[in-house]
User: Which sequence fits this backbone?
């Protein structure tokens, strides 16, 4: 049962490079902007795929976790922390680079959190909130998580809209670039577009690599087992409540990380990122990708989000994702790609059939 | 505790579902290394008893002790971790996984790699995975299903699924194995193989407690038998004793298994 995701990941990396080369050669680099954004949204969908497709739990709050990450980064990096810097804490915080100076809006300098520190803060906050939301809901059998996360998402949306600190309906703009080192930075600067494309897609491929490893491990089998039969899983020694919570928290962290990075790329974030329709969209993408199918979810989510960001769906944007979800749940609960992947698997096992019989290590699943 | 103390002690268990007294003052012990059978008519409370012992049901009164520890009230996963494993009357496999993966799930309690070690595929995690794989495949071989290792478990026949469930339970390396009607749905040949297999399991030092309606199988392999009738334990003893117990014969066995003496 050795997972061998390296081959598909390398193939995908080649495709990523080829796409960039083609787009640049065609002189249409502006397409990369939506490709970059679609990549970050794909990370959210991949995390949700672990929860929904593998662990069998439904979260209707992933847009809220994405926003939690994005807003924490935005607030901490744009707030004027000069008073903090001048206080007794200022010296050590500046020396540890947890605070950084930036050009003020009206000249001069203001001091805000270092994007790395803000990112750490975003993950810590998301970790705590995901535990708080998930713990009570996941101790029970049934779809309590869907209800708890739906409520949580609505609360986060309302809070963002009603709070001055988060810019109310306008959201937050002027989020500074995130310097990653080696001359790379996450920012909307046109000169950095290709670099940002590789950062975003690097994150996607790294995420899918880690998730594939997890799916084919002791923990991943525990996730799939509790999905396949909670009572049997529990009787086989799996603390099902704890594993459900682990999958949920991990995927919330992935959503927050994507939110934080996309916020630096876009230079801001608005409350619509936290809307219930956005959460439904992530759920629809996982369903359309085939539920327990990381690559399917990646392909579907990158494609549909790219088209949506290009404005291809016009004013039907939200309706389209809602309709997609309804269509899949009622017509093809295994996902529209299922016949395709089943066919592919059959073909593969026929081609590799000989090896399956003679070696203990079969082909990668 | 002395080595002679029973591995499992069921002490005065009562459990009621609405108007049905499923278990009524049930007490008995299971000695180390024996094969013990629980028999009785449909609805006698046998599965309920297994659910109480394995932690799926918290009994309304009474206690269960395993290896000297009170386990009634513990969640099932903790009880499994203590070395008690089970199969289900209706095979309860993970249909979203392959046959081999189903057995590998049984190794959960005997391994420890966490999420981070798995994500990064640390060397210790890889070694552990390899061991889990090898042990599980060997168990599938033992139940004659190694060839089906990579097939989705849903593609297997009913009898094969029973065997996968047995392999999965064995993968936890239990001290006590609970089998709920392991022979039901099996054909004669499969039942014979099962009897041999249960004997081998016992010889390996695993204590077996089984519920079974196939009386020739029970009389063949059980060292002792407890009989439930409407939740009440009405008799306990060796197969010879049970066969000749007037009450057991009249409420459950009928004439087929009674020796001439009891008639
Ligand atoms: N979850 C439940 N809710 C209500 N009643 C139940 C429940 N489980 C079992 N019962 C009842 O308790 C009694 C004992 O059931 P149990 O399943 O333990 O019997 P059994 O001896 O295993 O029977 P069989 O040989 O048919 O498997 C039956 O009357 C059954 O209807
Ligand atoms: Mg039963």
Assistant:
């Amino acid at each position: 049962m050795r997972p061998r995701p390296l081959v598909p990941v390398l193939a995908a990396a080649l495709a990523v490079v080829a796409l960039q080369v083609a787009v640049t050669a065609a002189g249409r680099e502006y397409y990369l902007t939506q490709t970059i954004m679609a990549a970050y949204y794909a990370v959210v969908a991949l995390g949700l795929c672990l929860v929904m497709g593998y662990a069998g739990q439904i979260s209707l709050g992933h847009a809220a976790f994405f926003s939690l990450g994005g807003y924490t980064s935005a607030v901490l990096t744009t707030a004027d922390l000069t008073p903090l810097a001048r206080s007794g804490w200022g010296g050590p915080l500046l020396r540890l680079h947890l605070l950084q100076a930036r050009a003020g809006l009206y000249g001069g300098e203001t001091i805000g959190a270092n994007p790395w520190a803000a990112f750490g803060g975003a993950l810590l906050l998301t970790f705590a909130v995901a535990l708080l939301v998930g713990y009570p809901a996941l101790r029970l059998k049934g779809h309590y998580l869907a209800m708890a996360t739906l409520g949580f998402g609505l609360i986060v949306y309302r809070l963002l809209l009603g709070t001055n600190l988060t810019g109310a309906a306008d959201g937050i703009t002027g989020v500074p670039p995130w310097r990653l080192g080696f001359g790379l930075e996450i920012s909307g600067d046109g000169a950095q577009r290709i670099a940002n494309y590789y950062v975003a897609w690097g994150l996607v491929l790294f995420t899918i690599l880690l998730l594939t490893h997890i799916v084919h491990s002791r923990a991943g089998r525990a996730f799939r087992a509790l999905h396949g039969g909670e009572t049997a899983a529990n009787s086989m020694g799996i603390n099902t409540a704890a594993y459900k919570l682990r999958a949920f928290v991990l995927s919330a962290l992935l959503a927050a990380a994507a939110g934080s990075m996309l916020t630096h790329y876009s230079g801001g974030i608005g409350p619509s990122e936290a809307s219930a329709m956005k959460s439904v969209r992530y759920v629809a993408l996982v369903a359309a990708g085939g539920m327990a199918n990381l690559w399917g979810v990646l392909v579907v989510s990158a494609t549909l989000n790219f088209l949506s960001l290009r404005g291809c769906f016009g004013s039907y944007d939200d309706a389209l994702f809602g309709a997609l979800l309804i269509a899949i749940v009622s017509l093809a609960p295994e996902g529209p790609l299922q016949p395709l992947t089943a066919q592919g698997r059959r073909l593969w096992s026929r081609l590799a059939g000989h090896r399956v019989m003679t070696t203990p290590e079969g082909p990668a699943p | 505790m002395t080595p002679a103390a029973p591995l499992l002690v069921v002490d005065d268990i009562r459990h009621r579902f609405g108007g049905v007294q499923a278990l009524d003052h049930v007490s008995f012990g299971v000695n180390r290394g024996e094969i013990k059978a629980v028999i009785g008519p449909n609805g006698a409370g046998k599965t309920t008893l297994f659910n109480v012992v394995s932690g799926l049901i918290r009994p309304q009164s009474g206690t269960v002790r395993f290896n000297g520890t009170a386990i009634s009230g513990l969640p099932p996963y903790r009880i499994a971790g203590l070395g008690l494993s089970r199969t289900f009357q209706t095979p309860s496999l993970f249909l979203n996984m392959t046959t081999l993966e189903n057995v590998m799930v049984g190794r959960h309690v005997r391994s420890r790699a966490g999420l981070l070690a798995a994500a990064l595929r640390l060397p210790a995690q890889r070694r552990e995975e390899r061991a889990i794989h090898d042990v599980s495949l060997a168990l599938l071989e033992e139940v004659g299903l190694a060839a089906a290792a990579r097939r989705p478990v849903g593609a297997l026949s009913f009898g094969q699924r029973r065997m996968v469930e047995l392999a999965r339970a064995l993968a936890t390396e239990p001290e006590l194995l609970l089998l709920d009607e392991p022979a039901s749905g099996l054909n004669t040949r499969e039942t014979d193989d099962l009897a041999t297999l249960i004997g081998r399991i016992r010889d390996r030092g695993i204590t077996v407690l089984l519920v079974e309606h196939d009386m020739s199988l029970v009389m063949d392999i059980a060292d002792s038998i407890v009989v439930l009738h409407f939740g009440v334990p009405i008799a306990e003893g060796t197969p010879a004793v049970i066969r000749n117990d007037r009450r057991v014969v009249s409420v459950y066995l009928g004439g087929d298994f009674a020796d001439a003496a009891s008639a």
Q: What stands out?
A: Chain B has two domains: 1-21+32-82+185-263, 84-173. The domain at 1-21+32-82+185-263 of chain B is CATH 3.40.50.300 (Rossmann fold). The beta strands of chain B are 8-17, 20-30, 35-39, 61-66, 69-70, 84-86, 176-180, 207-211, 224-229, 232-237. The radius of gyration of chain B is 19 Å.
